[in-house]
Amino acid sequence: MKEDMKQYILDNFDQAMKENQIKVYYQPIVRVLTREVCGWEALTRWIKPDGTMIYPDQFVKVLEEEKLIHKLDIFMINKVCEQNRGRMDYMGFMEPVSLNLSRLDFELCDIFQEVESAVNKYRLQRNMFDIEITESALMTDEKILGPAIKKFRGKGYQVWLDDFGSGYSSFNVMKDYDFDVLKIDMEFLRNFDSSTKVKKIMSTIIEMSKSLSIQTVAEGVETEEQLDFLRLIGCEKAQGYYFGKPLPYERASENILSKNLGIEKTSLRDYMDAISGVNYATEYQGVVGDNDSLSAITGAPLAIIQYKDGLVRTMIANRNYMKALFPLGIRSVTEADDLFNAGRWREKKQALQIAAQARVDGVDHRLDFLNNGMLFSMKIRHVATNAEEHVSAYTIELLNHTSFVAQDHESLDKSLHFLCNLFERIDMISLDGDMIQNIYMNSSRYRGIVDGNDAMSSILDFARNNIYPSDRKRFQEFYDVHTFETRFIDVNGRYLRDYFRTIDLNGEYHWQSYTLIPTELNGKNMFISCVSDASMEFYDLLDDAYIDENVEKNVAGVKEDDSKPPYKDVHKMMKQDKNVASDLNTAHILENVLDLTGAGIFWKDRQRRFLGANQKFLEYYGFDGIESILGKTDEEVGWHIDPSQFVNDEERVITNGEIIERSPGQCIIQGEVREIEATKRPLFKDGKIVGLIGYFVDVTDQKQNWKNMDDRLPQSGVDKLSSEAAFHATLSKYEDQYWVRGLDFALVYVELKEMNIYRLSYGEAFFLKLLKKVVGVLRKVIGESSVLIHKSENEFLVLHQYRQRMEIDELQSRIRDGLRSIHKIDNIPVNLEVLSGVGFYSETEDPTRMLKMVDSRKNGGIHPGFS
Prior knowledge:
Blueprint: H1 3-18, E1 22-31, E2 36-47, E3 53-54, H2 56-65, H3 69-91, E4 97-101, H4 105-108, H5 111-121, E5 129-134, H6 135-138, H7 142-154, E6 158-164, H8 170-176, E7 181-184, H9 187-190, H10 196-211, E8 215-218, H11 224-233, E9 237-239, H12 249-258, E10 262-263, H13 269-276, H14 282-285, E11 302-308, E12 311-317, H15 319-325, H16 333-341, H17 348-361, E13 365-371, E14 374-386, E15 391-400, H18 409-421, E16 425-430, E17 436-441, H19 455-466, H20 472-478, H21 484-490, E18 496-503, E19 509-521, E20 524-533, H22 535-546, H23 551-555, H24 566-574, H25 580-583, H26 586-596, E21 600-605, E22 610-613, H27 615-621, H28 634-637, H29 644-656, E23 660-669, E24 672-685, E25 688-698, H30 700-711, H31 724-741, E26 745-752, H32 755-762, H33 764-782, E27 786-792, E28 795-801, H34 806-820, E29 824-825, E30 828-829, E31 834-840, H35 841-844, H36 847-857
Parallel strand pairs: 2-4, 2-10, 4-5, 5-6, 6-7, 7-8, 8-9
Antiparallel strand pairs: 1-2, 1-9, 2-3, 11-12, 11-15, 13-14, 14-15, 16-17, 16-20, 18-19, 19-20, 21-22, 21-25, 23-24, 24-25, 26-28, 26-31, 27-28, 29-30
Helix pairs in contact: 1-2, 3-5, 22-26, 24-26, 32-33, 33-34
């Protein structure tokens, strides 16, 4: 360097800082997975008064030689904090910034305290600042830098190892210090195009870093090819002129917009860091192979998916995962996402339940399923959840076991696990009836038969408490151990099957399939009892029947034979031959299954014209045959008081592929206005929506029952308070919406401790007036979108579906403020102490556990929503 330039720097350095000739330039750091800016590196530029620039490689070296570098770095730290305070005040947020510190900073001053002072002065968060320390600095000052690094990390700053790979002791440095991020020296990418060795080294560095839970940033990215390579090998972040050169913040922001780069929300930083830390490339897939190419050598097919607002999106998938999709008839991750989001994958609900369980307990869960005659296993692992954005990430490991079956015990175990997953509950029953024992359960929706030494006694108890009354006699006969052997002879010893309405934990009956299979255990004759939901089979048959050209004539006007239940027909047909599925005619099964349900079922084309309906539907509306509605729309039939709701619902189903659940409406039946709820879903053929299928349920009588229960309440001075039945009905509906649309809901508990004191002090009449006032206030503050139930004399529950959790905070505030505003009743002073708590369905994803959780919290448990 020329002496005159060195002297100029020394003579003008202090003045340059005073006059703000020293500028902060920002270069974007980009999240490789999302191509969003997730931070900035703050860099120093010296702009002379004449507009010319003194570059860092000129003045930094001089300041280090003269031991003045700490002054520059302290100035930069304060300037960066000042600027970001301004952005916080203006925009309400700031993006993470990395600060470069010199080795001499740790010798010449207490640089940790300098950073702390600036961050505190400008009221900023520590986790928004990353401390970059060069590799070379750490090789000479272990005693000073070691404790300082611990201080920074201990206070919540991330510490980055800069220029990793530029020195000779890189791995020693990693061994001796703890870092959050490795910043890979840009020299690696400069030789990227011509060196296979460079790619192998970088892949190894990424793999090693992930195994140590250290993130990686690659400097010097200049091409799309380099970025694609970094994405393939799992590098988390990238920086370089490809995204933008260092510029003042305003110009740098304009530049990233011009390059169509998004900006990562600060609230998602930890969430995205967790996702980026997944070793989806090297650990599972192998690394760079011969001929300068990437090859999927070994490992499991892995993808990272994101679930938000009821939809999945694949963030990245390795090559083995793509290969695993091919046997499923899927050629891209976009196609896989569309299949799931449109509800065309029959295992969707079970996959959502398993993913939810993985998120709750932090354990990997597996889903086994058949597709195109092949056995697949899907392992789901929860990676991270961001509650504020209502988004979760999971890894999906997808294996095709067909080629592995019978190779070893592990493969056999996987096959048996799949067979178990076909059922919700499996029990072992001895032929002599002296033992019944549960051996498998994968659902908590239904109660099981209690284990014991008297099988028939347990079966009778189960039937009495769980089977629909008119089905109980058949159920007891079906499980009669004394007739097992005779009945199995009739079906050539294969299996027995029948269908019974079974009550779930919400008090609702659903059709379930019960199967008995003979076996032997330790020389003793046994029977395996397998229970599964009949509803999935039912809808599968409907979907199959739709593409049968003869379905309309086959199902039109089918009458049920009262002397022989239709499920018996289905059962007998299922027993006729070993090749059951191939020998059954779908339309014949459909005739029976359609009449099996108590709901009115119909299906339409894309123009919303009726193509068919079951007998229940025709009888409900008083039609002699299908000809009365065939080819007509609802408006042409003219049975709805206001058809607009039905039209809108059906357009959403056909156009957007949405599933409409329990949409309320009114229709006219023989001159009487009836309340119905309709559920509709799209019909697919060759991946395209060709119409819709739906069913309705008449809820007029049910609503009247709720009203009758409510009508009993005026004796306590409370008018039109929701009954417990209505409350649980809404709870069930909200649960459906959570799984279908991703809409969460909350249960708010409210307790007024002094209510009983007022009753004892001022009598029953005063208490009823106070209660009526309390209910009136609650109804006013919770609005029409919430359900209220009076749990006990001083306890209330509020059920509310929300889109942002702040709604629940506001709801609790309105409840407390509203109730505390009650000051007098009949000129008697009133001062209510309000205790409230909240539980979110997403915390448990089970209504029973949610109720128990809120119930436990009301007793003083500490939790975020309690006040």
